[in-house]
Amino acid sequence: MKRSRTQTTAGSSSVDLLALADYVEQFSSKTVAVLGDFVADEFQFGEISRVSREAPVLILRHRETQLVPGGGANAANNLAALGARVLSITAVGQDTAGDALVAYFKQRRMDVSGILRVKGHTTPTKTRFLAGWAHTVGQQVLRVDREPHAPLPPSSHKRIRQLLDTKLRSADALAVSDYGFGVAAPELVRQVTSKRKSLVVTLDARYALASYAKSGVTSATPNEAELEAVHHTAIGQNLEELARCGRASLSAMKLKALLVTRGRDGVALFQSPALLTLIPIHGSNQAVDVTGAGDTVLAAYTLALASGAPPLEAAHIANFAGGLVVMKRGTATVSRTELLEAIRSEASGAAR
Q: pTM of this prediction?
């Protein structure tokens, strides 16, 4: 079969699209440990019935409630959808949201032995209220977040460390998903990577990207806003500023690669101070819903690296996955079949 090639934006490298499919084919043979904050994403759907007489607000007639994995749990869910065996290491509360997350993963026959249940702890929950008329798509009108009121106790951190050590014995990679709720920490990552120099370690840190400097992370996947926050700047369409920030983080964190997601502008891959690759978005630049897209990118990118893909090829695979998931509503996943179909369809078009 003819191998087709596609070129990214000016000054960037090309990739063999069919080689990307070869890497994706290997996903089902990989085991990935996920360390991080598991969040419950709750969606409350209702129809607009009238305006309240008590206040100038809409009254929604409740139709249904959906609860799906969010945050690190969404990354784990995406890894499973892509075919990987997933080993979750996290802590959730002994509450309704925690029960729902554990039940969700059990139903999909995923390993839950690394999900620590902590008495008195609140499972982070993001409740989105979506309003619409009959036969219309609901629009988000309000989000309510429930977060832990206190940090995890020392005994929980000790148990998380023990679980992580155990799970990594059979893992091909470690994905760290730090949403700021205290499960993942730079020192913990440093401790485990110091013993496993060859382990692929990826990082998605919402607030503390720079704190993971020199912690043994192979590659990080911040979005552009998170990179801006680290460097106290605005990037926008300023590619020189993007290059400056990306190269500074790559160097300071001692990463092998840095993958920056840029929304409708695709992704930017930094592999060395002199090499910046810009990859345009896959598919439409009119996203339906970006909720959880970063988790999908982390999952696909981690699996690609674990399957032996160089950072550039892994970035393209993650870009395909990200482009697919933003066309779905709510917190969603991309399956290995969907990803393979998208890559092969692109390869067929490039070969014509």
A: 0.92
